[in-house]
Design a protein that fits this description.
This protein is mainly beta. The chain has one domain: Immunoglobulin-like (Sandwich). A four-stranded antiparallel beta sheet has the order 4-3-6-7. Strands 1-2-5 form a three-stranded antiparallel beta sheet, with no helix packed on it. The longest helix has 4 residues. It is elongated. The two termini are about 20 Å apart.
Length: about 120
């Protein structure tokens, strides 16, 4: 979405197929990261646990249907690096890395769904 300072984006994960515990997500346009511009994230610097289990939602206990990260960039075309970290049911660490090539002109007035 275009705003006064540039462009904003929203990256979300939802409806997990496997149990995901202590989910952390970081999304960044690496060309714009600096000491004063930290990468948008959830679960990384918080003292809160986010869990996602198929067909189970109880936000009071930390179980969510989905999680989202909102960020801003100054460019209309950019590359987002998305890292999702979580523990599975056996407490093994899992890492999923996505690269999202985005161009505002391609998605103006549309919602982008990574599953499509």
């Amino acid at each position: 979405m275009k705003n006064e300072d540039g462009y904003s984006y929203l990256v979300s994960i939802s409806d997990p197929l496997v149990a995901m515990y202590n989910v952390q997500m970081v999304v960044a346009d690496l060309s714009e990261i600096s000491e004063s511009n930290v990468a948008p994230n959830i679960g990384v610097f918080e003292n809160k646990s986010y869990n996602m289990i198929p067909n189970q939602v109880n936000t009071e206990k930390g179980y969510y249907k989905g999680l989202a990260v909102h960020g801003e960039t100054s460019k209309s075309a950019f590359v987002l690096n998305c890292l999702v970290m979580y523990k599975d049911a056996k407490q093994n660490d899992n890492y999923v890395y996505y690269i999202i090539n985005a161009d505002y002109a391609d998605f103006e007035n549309e919602e982008v769904n990574a599953n499509e």
